[in-house]
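Show me any protein, keeping tokens residue-aligned.
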Amino acid sequence: MGSPIYKWKKTQVLLSTRRRKLTNLPWTQGVILLVCVVIAMLLANLPATRDLYFEILETHLSINVLMPDGHGFIFPAGMTVEKFINDILMVVFFFTVGLEIKREVVCGELSTPQKAIMPVIAAFGGVLMPALIYALINHGSAASSGWGIPTATDIAFAVAILAVLGKRVPVSLKVFLTALAIADDLIAILVVAIFYGGDINMPCIGFSLLLIVFVVWLNITGEKRPWFYFIPAICIWFLFYYSGIHATMSGVVMALLIPMKPRYSKEYFFKKGSIYWSRLNESGKLTKADDFPNETQRLMLHRLSSTANDSIGMSYRLENILNPWVSFVIMPIFALANAGVRISDPAYFNMFNYTPELGSVSMGIFLGLLLGKPIGITLASFIAVKAKVGQMPAHSTWKSLAAVACLGGIGFTMSIFVDTLSFADQPPQVMNMLQDMGKVAVLMGSLCSALLGSLLILFGSKKKPNSASFQ
């Protein structure tokens, strides 16, 4: 029988191990996001919470700064809880996405033309077709500026479904969809940066470009200390916030500038590591096992850990640190803040409600996700293969690729984010109505795309459930 302290420590270790295993499961993030969507919808519509929910989101967080001469200014201008989530927390999300894209381009699934060409072409098809469907439906109406909403794929939900389906989906198609979603994210980032900004403030743009050039110079000169990148990142965010370019784009810019090369080389690590390890062993011979680690050993372990840490590129370290925070903190908060729609009008659920003045944001998004995404991905892939510029994923057929392409219609995170940026040229009441209808359509379109893709995959592999490919 152990002591209470021993039992408590053993329980803590067991809980920590189970928590790590749970967070590493590929479907965990998708499930958490889905739960947050349900909670947000309940908070936004239950009589006891709906008013409080929107009051919290609209709470102002700006600071009134008074100058010595008696004048003052508000900083940051117009900052609310909702904008804090969408303009500050989402910077970390975009920063992490930028790091992932950079890694894939440098040494991952997009690192060579042979690897990149097929998913990149498919991603362009999966962006253009939904945008075309949306534009055809809403051309000339108040909803026309929302064409970018149904163009993105949410990798968290797509990977979660692929994980649940297991061996029914060939590994090559899982890699294909993941690479496609990464290319899709890059296109979505460009869409936000180019088409969904505000009025351009050229002095702010100029100062931000000077800072970016300075960071590039730091990278070229071999600077690897994080603070030399963190401080310019904050300044670039402020300049972007007031420049008319959406503030989240500062995260992408900084991600592309973070050095991937480690501070220490492999030779240096093995040389210093062997010295520290030798001293660690020598110190251990002079003490009892129960005294580990003694003061000298703690110093050697710290130096060994520090050297190992600096032998990994800053880009990889930051991605590893931020991924759990983005997946299990920032994205759930984003879902809680943005998925809550007050269903005051049953027309929100009528995907085919159309008027010449307002168009139909619901129809455009729903059909764009459910039909535009799989048609665009499959058609672009077909053209690439027939033109002999791309190659079909191994052990897959056109039927299996089309089924997996349906999962590309799951457009939760980026679609809702673009929805919050759209329709700014409309009166506030019309803008809020279109945005709410857009969010409902994103949820419905994503749900139907997930169900359609899952059913097609299950139907296609029904004869041989354990097969690695569709029949």
Q: What stands out?
A: Strands lie at 63-66, 72-75.
